[in-house]
Design a protein that fits this description.
41% strand; five-stranded antiparallel β-sheet; 3 helices; 19% helix; single chain; alpha+beta; 199 residues; 2 domains; 14 strands; Chondroitinase Ac, Chain A, domain 3
Length: 199
């Protein structure tokens, strides 16, 4: 028993001081891995995502499906017989975006950015959504009072933009405002931003 106690005391004497430091380092590394992960779209680093706020939803070819963000502001609706195969839609909120904050027609970024990607049933990310010809998904974003303020109090000045990896520029998608929601039909994936058009 004394030998065991002596062994514990020797271990604490040797590792007692650096142990708290090691614990802190492990916690920090764990926090970085779990909480802040760079989003990589086809090799392009777009910003920082929060893993805890990521949501996924299965979309079937025959029944379609719907993906809703954790904060309930974003909805991606896919009607039946829209895709050529079953897919998993993934939503990730974006923060500290590294993409240029330059939008067409001097539009203003409201600061609400997010990423929508698609995976096959095995979990492999797809480069594009497998849509049937002429089909689109419905992307809806609920705007806040602050978003409306940036639009000069005119809801119709709010719109949705999508990052075009080919041109390396933001592209404004034709959108409509229904109630407190900005809605668009699109076949694109990737990073989106809610923007306010100038007066």
């Amino acid at each position: 028993m004394e030998a065991r106690n002596r062994g514990v005391k020797d271990w604490l004497k040797k590792w007692g001081e650096p142990l708290p430091i090691l614990v802190v380092i492990i916690m920090l590394l764990g926090g970085i891995w779990l909480g802040r992960i760079s989003s990589d779209l086809n090799g392009v680093k777009t910003g920082v995502t929060t893993l805890a706020a990521r949501t996924e939803s299965r979309v079937t070819r025959s029944l379609g499906g719907k993906l809703t963000s954790q904060d309930a502001r974003v909805t991606v609706a896919v009607a039946p017989e829209t895709t050529t195969q079953d897919v998993i839609l993934r939503y990730q909120p974006m923060s500290k975006s590294v993409l240029p904050a330059v939008f067409p027609d001097k539009a203003i970024n409201t600061g609400y950015e997010f990423c929508v990607t698609a995976l096959n049933p095995s979990g492999v990310q797809l480069s594009e959504l497998p849509l049937k010809e002429g089909k689109r998904l419905t992307l809806s974003v609920i705007y806040t009072d602050n978003d409306l303020k940036l639009a000069g109090g005119v809801a119709n000045r709010l719109s949705i933009a999508n990052w075009d990896e080919t041109t390396g520029e933001w592209e404004v998608i034709s959108s409509v405002v229904v109630g407190h929601t900005v809605r668009t039909e699109t076949g694109k994936l990737g990073q989106f931003a809610l923007i306010a058009k100038p007066q």
